């Protein structure tokens, strides 16, 4: 649901936002939308917010906060500001980014970048002093809101990494993971509805919203890459950008391996994100044209012929043998269409895990502090609502 001031209209799951009902050509002018945030550990929840924001206008400007600002108001970010800037630039609904955007959104910022209004999710973002960062634009009627994407949060992803269980991508009940979903980041007064963990449920409609829907055109070079693409990060973005540059008219297809396959060759508690979550993360990247969900590990004749693949690429990461010990890229190598690419970025999901583990105490403290502030806001809102009800009851009597 999209809230427009005090009014609410349905989001794209039930119908297009009202501001998208007119084609750009029929509008008197271009509608510019502003979004801002930390965009740390960018996941499909962030992408879905940006998708909805773009649907409310014609041109999307995204402000990304610096490391210093995030550390001041929330705690240490997982990714550096340079990494976060690049991740948002690679999101296909984003037209422009503003580096080092102020943590508190003001009318001055909206006017500086010629934006009609600011859009954010229905979770509350607070300053270090506990104030709503969107208070000014809300009061002046230049704020729009969308429902937060259920089933994902940075809190949950961090928890999955720290627990080292496989329950987030298997059907096996695990008391440790259940304890995480019940308690991770929980404050002394209970759960905030914005930080809690809930299960993500994939739908065909959600995939359609994220997919480009474009078929390969005559003259396109069809390039195939495969992997886990877990915790979709800047290392993946740099690789896919390098892949995209291999042809004048590239059509990049990403084959995503099923969770059990990833766990076979990666081990530990990988993948951190399940196949449904990874699908949306990859589809949100501007360098990707199509995704094969549950692609076979071996890139064989049937796959190459079905998609009419011209080129198969792989990064500098290790290629694990198939279950029978054979090379999964034997067929494209035989055809002379296999290419190893160096994106000059050696960041892996393992490296991100290490960042999290090394700063575990800081991240846990950050999550608990964030939840405590959110609970205080909820208590204040409840108190205000109770006061208004009491006043109304006295007036009626």
Automatic annotation (TrEMBL):
Disordered: annotated segments: 1-24
CDD domains xrefs: CCT, ECT
InterPro entries: CCT, Cyt_trans-like, Ect1/PCYT2, Rossmann-like_a/b/a_fold
GO molecular function: ethanolamine-phosphate cytidylyltransferase activity
Keywords: Lipid biosynthesis, Lipid metabolism, Nucleotidyltransferase, Phospholipid biosynthesis, Phospholipid metabolism, Transferase
GO biological process, one term: phosphatidylethanolamine biosynthetic process
EC number per UniProt: 2.7.7.14
Enzyme class: transferase
Pathway: Lipid metabolism; Phospholipid metabolism; phosphatidylethanolamine biosynthesis; phosphatidylethanolamine from ethanolamine: step 2/3
GO annotation, cellular component aspect: cytoplasm
Matches recorded under Gene3D superfamilies: HUPs (3.40.50.620)
Stretches assigned to the Cytidyltransferase-like domain: 34-158, 225-316
Family: Belongs to the cytidylyltransferase family.
Protein name, per record: ethanolamine-phosphate cytidylyltransferase
Phylogenetic classification of the source organism: Eukaryota, Metazoa, Chordata, Craniata, Vertebrata
Primary gene name: LOC107756034
